Amino acid sequence: MSAKDLTKAVAQRFAGMGKRERIAKIRKLAAASPADAKFVRESFPELYREAFVTSSRVAGGRSAAGRRRARGAATR
């Protein structure tokens, strides 16, 4: 099976799952090894972002004003 066929089959399988189940499976797949994490990140960027999202409301996230200040400081 080619990589293209594999990614298509996996994407179809994940599309049929509920959001919580999909996120749990993506996280489990990406946690298996660094190579698997890279494969998921490159092959399924939307699913990877959905599973590993960081909102500005959680610790470590930034507000819009904080991002603007950081960009402004970086250009000086």
Summarize this structure as a short list of keywords or feature phrases:
single chain; 76 residues; 5 helices; mainly alpha
What is the overall silhouette? elongated
- Helical percentage: over 70%
By DSSP (H or I, 4+ residues per run), the number of helices equals 5
The chain-level structural class is mainly alpha
Query: What is the tally of beta strands?
Result: 0
Low-pLDDT regions: none
Largest sheet: none
Portion in strands:
under 5%
Mean pLDDT: 81
Distance, first to last CA: 51 Å
Tell me the domain tally.
1
Give me the Rg, rounded.
16 Å
Q: What is the element string, with H for helices and E for strands?
A: HHHHH
